[in-house]
Specification:
By secondary structure, this protein is mainly β. The chain is globular and about 60 Å long. The strands form nine sheets. It has a four-stranded antiparallel β-sheet, with no helix packed on it. Strands 6-7-8-9 form a four-stranded antiparallel β-sheet, with no helix packed on it. Helices cover 0% and strands 50% of the residues. The chain has strands at 2-5, 11-14, 22-24, 31-33, 46-52, 57-63, 69-75, 90-94, 100-104, 111-116, 122-127, 132-136, 148-153, 160-165, 171-176, 180-185, 190-196, 203-207, 213-218, 224-228, 234-238, 248-253, 259-264, 267-272, 277-283, 287-292, 298-305, 310-316, 322-326, 333-338, 344-349, 353-358. The protein starts with a strand and ends in a 6-residue tail after the last strand.
């Protein structure tokens, strides 16, 4: 027999060599994927730490590239007891043991997005106050001056809702609801170019792992769009039929850069960029955040299922099959992020907490 342990504590017994592809927990009734004959039972993610310190709904979480730091930000919206006076601050934590390391203050309104530089020396924050903050976090975890702000970048005329570094660290992209994406030289922090998108609503953007492409979606109807990050020329539009086209809330490249996962209203679609075709789509009830593991095919979605109180789901990014349900938050999950080694998932919620989940090791 193969034994699978459910999050609720009960054990599911599966005969070896079973032809069934799914099984149900005998206690809570959740559906689990069963291993193929000869496979080891899948390891279950475990909750490692709960981080408390914010006084508002978590709006953004981001790991440093060396997986030593975690940055989090919260706003005054969507939580039971918001603290508007602290809406413009971010917190920096030791990502290993969850100790608070620094408080970053300087924005006048909620920080909506965070991104570490590839060398883990700089943290960039984007805010509803239309600015980007550039923070020096190079002095290490135990230095009292970690988190000194070096720059305040102005240029957007709307809320900054997305920031992303190119893989070589020389270029930063910022997206706003002012219908533009702006590209910044990270050596001088001068704006290099402006991409007029003509799209309304919150922008979400990311670079491909190799840094060649920049992809973006918006919380308004319309295609996902992809640009060549060097020439600034648009090279792809991923279009749906009008009856399928809804607002988008997130996107993520696969580790090889050949696929793009796009989160729309209650659905995730995995696009093949070579053919501009949807490879697989799967329902994701109440989901508003998406992340892709940088080292394997794992996808994470954050949201809320009223019936089950499930806030996080892990999915097979190739097949769209559900792998795990993670319970622990008391309100909807608004942000998720993987560490660079794929071993930790961070989730931020409207319950004002951030949780760190240990994931199974990725097999070679």
């Amino acid at each position: 027999m193969i034994l699978l342990k459910c999050d609720c504590g009960k054990t599911l017994q599966i005969p070896e060599g079973t032809a069934a592809k799914k099984g149900k927990c005998p206690s809570c009734g959740r559906v689990w994927l069963l291993p193929a004959a000869g496979d080891e039972p899948p390891a279950i993610p475990t909750l490692r730490a709960t981080l408390r310190g914010h006084r508002g709904a978590i709006a953004a979480v981001a790991f440093s590239s060396d997986a030593k730091l975690l940055a989090t930000a919260a706003g005054s919206e969507g939580s039971a007891s918001p603290d508007k006076a602290r809406a413009g601050e971010a917190l920096v934590w030791d990502a290993v043991d969850g100790r608070p390391m620094a408080t970053l203050t300087g924005h006048r309104d909620t920080i909506r997005c965070l991104a570490f530089s590839p060398d883990s020396q700089v943290l960039v924050s984007g805010s509803k106050d239309h600015t980007l903050g550039v923070w020096d976090v190079s002095r290490g975890l135990w230095d009292s001056v970690v988190g000194v702000r070096e720059q305040l970048l102005r240029g957007h005329f709307g809320k900054v809702t997305a920031v992303a570094y190119r893989a070589d660290g020389t270029l930063l992209a910022s997206g706003s609801d002012d219908q533009t994406i702006r590209l910044w030289n990270t050596s001088s922090w001068q704006m290099e170019s402006i991409v007029e998108t003509g799209r309304r609503g919150a922008c979400h953007l990311t670079f491909s792992p190799c840094g060649r492409y920049l992809a973006a979606v918006w919380s308004s109807r319309g295609p996902a769009r992809v640009w060549d990050a060097t020439t600034r020329q648009e090279c792809l539009q991923l279009r749906l039929r009008s009856e399928e086209d809804f607002e988008d809330y997130g996107l993520a490249f696969s580790p090889d850069g050949g696929k793009l996962a796009v989160l729309s209203a209650d659905e995730v679609r995995l696009w093949d960029l070579s053919s501009c075709q949807v490879l697989v789509s799967f329902a994701a009830e109440g989901v508003k955040s998406l992340a892709s593991s940088p080292v394997d095919k794992l996808l994470a979605t954050g949201g809320w299922e009223v019936a089950t109180h499930v806030g996080i789901r892990l999915w097979d990014g190739m097949t769209g099959m559900p792998l795990h349900e993670l319970q622990g938050h008391n309100l909807p999950v608004s942000a998720v992020a993987f560490s660079a080694d794929g071993r930790t998932l961070a989730s931020g919620s409207r319950d004002m907490t951030v949780k760190l989940w240990s994931l199974p090791a990725v097999k070679a």
